[in-house]
Specification:
This protein has 448 residues and is α+β, with helices and mostly antiparallel strands. The protein contains 15 helices and eleven strands. A hairpin with a 2-residue loop joins β5 and β6. α2 crosses α3. The longest helix has 26 residues.
Amino acid sequence: MKKFIFCLLFLIIASLSFAQNAYMLDGIIAVVGKEVILRSDLEKLYAEYSSQFTLDEDDNETRCQLLKQLVYQKLLIHQADLDSIVITNDELDNTINYRMSMMIQQVGGNEKIIEDYYNKTIAEIKKDIREDIYNQLLVDQVQQSITANVIITPSEVKDFHKRIPGDSLPEIETTYEFGHIVKIPPVSEDEISAIKERLESYRERVLRGERFAMLARLYSDDPGSASKGGDLGFADRGTFYPEFEAAAFALHTGEISSVIKTQAGYHIIQMIERRGESIHVAHILIQPKPSAEEQVKAIESLDSVRNVILTQKMDFSAAAEAFSDAPDKLAGGWVVNPYSGSYKFERESIDPSTLLTLEKLIPGEYSSPVPYVNEDGIMTYRLLYLKSKVAAHQPNMFDDYDFIKNAALEEKKYNTLQKWVVNKVKVTSIKLNEEYKNCPFVEEWQIP
């Protein structure tokens, strides 16, 4: 949304990257209410921005844009103080854990890549970004309160579309909507007993002197940690499954848990180190595997379900509720995009094996049974049903009303925030260093 609103995660990453640079020439360059902006705040943001985009050696226009963002942020934080907004520790910890998990996912789940890049442990990185995340949560709450009552009418959507034609909006990529009917092959009690015995034997071997990390590399079913000796790094409360977390926090340094069951399978946990409410643990995971016979039965069962649906012309959602083993059957079997919360997926957000199956279908068709490893790492089988496939295209009012409506709403929220800033500047003490008083935003916001 123009350069006015930068993603605040950019500020967080900048605060980490800047620690590796030598631009710490400090001094106050702006004061917004009781909030101070240091030269180092601007320079660390500029350093990160210049690492991603080609800039002149001294790009004052960019510095002005970045300072504008910092002043805007401080205005919102100042307002949060006036409104007595409080961010709880739980809310802060949960947000930090989520942001870190997203960063780790973006590098293939390998924490060490991030630790090596910043030359810090995950726990140290979390500590470094804590203040920035806290400020971001304050900013988010104030922005939401300012725009809470902003609504968009159909006539405003039409006016927006006339004023900004579809070919001026970003192209909508190919999207898919699909559902699934899942069968989870049962695991025998003999298999579960054997898994527990194996884990107990590994525990005994460690107690007799063998290295936990070596056994994890050899036997753990967790692809993300096995190569690292089962090491899960430092994590705060709320990161792991509740059963796993309860067992882990009960351990002392060097201790190994008994066998723990979670949605992902069965584990033993070794406590490496604890720092307050953060723990550094390793684990060995073994996931129950159904027998070949049970897998064949699951496939045959889905074949029968597919035949019933096609011969009886059964509605997909009714079939999912009747036959699926997945929790989402109560929501009609539709697969939800975890990134957007909608039922629409762009190609890049669909795992390759699922996409390969969907590409062979036309809307309204069912796949044959296909193997599927669910979010807990459990082997299942499923029928895929393709509800819709919309090819990439420029937005239009007939097919993409919601997309255009959201774009119009975002513009209206942006304009509301702009008006709020101009009014807020009138009643807030703002002092800028002389060298920045010629920045365009000073006149735009009518800063005295």
